[in-house]
Amino acid sequence: MTEIEPSVFTRIINGELPGRFVYRDDVCAAFLTIEPLRYGHVLLVPIEQVDKWTDLDSETWLHLSSLSQEIGEAIKTAYDTPRTGFIIAGFDVPHAHIHLFPTEKMSEYDFAKAMAMDATDPKAMDEAAVRIRQHLNTDENGYRNN
């Protein structure tokens, strides 16, 4: 059996690369993307590295789906937007993931308009993580506060 090369998401989850986590449990993790459509853009990722969301087992998919609603509501509340965008694309990283982002209009669903990693403001990124975590009641590692 061939071992799979760890994806960038696996490396973030394992602490090999930095990440701004907003949620984490035994099944998945949610952290800010480094190239956001808007500040507050989160990736919800299963811990298990599975390339396509359609290949996830149904229990994992149901967990991600349920959490996407909870995290989506936290994002919407934190940014006072009418909606939270939800996109599954899956071409850039071979690890299933859901994009969740604050949005006010359909034209914001355009990855060509994403901020480049070096164009984001680190303070604004940190602030985004804090704002979302406050609504999820999670700590800086994404775990629930007791």
From TrEMBL:
Gene3D superfamilies, per database record: HIT-like (3.30.428.10)
Q: Which UniProt keywords are listed?
A: Hydrolase
Give the GO molecular function terms.
hydrolase activity
Instruction: Outline the extent of the HIT domain.
Output: 8-111
Short motif Histidine triad motif, span: 95-99
- Does Aminoacyl-tRNA synthetase count among this protein's keywords? no
Look up keyword DNA damage and say if it applies: no
Pfam families the record matches? HIT
Q: What is this protein called?
A: Diadenosine tetraphosphate hydrolase
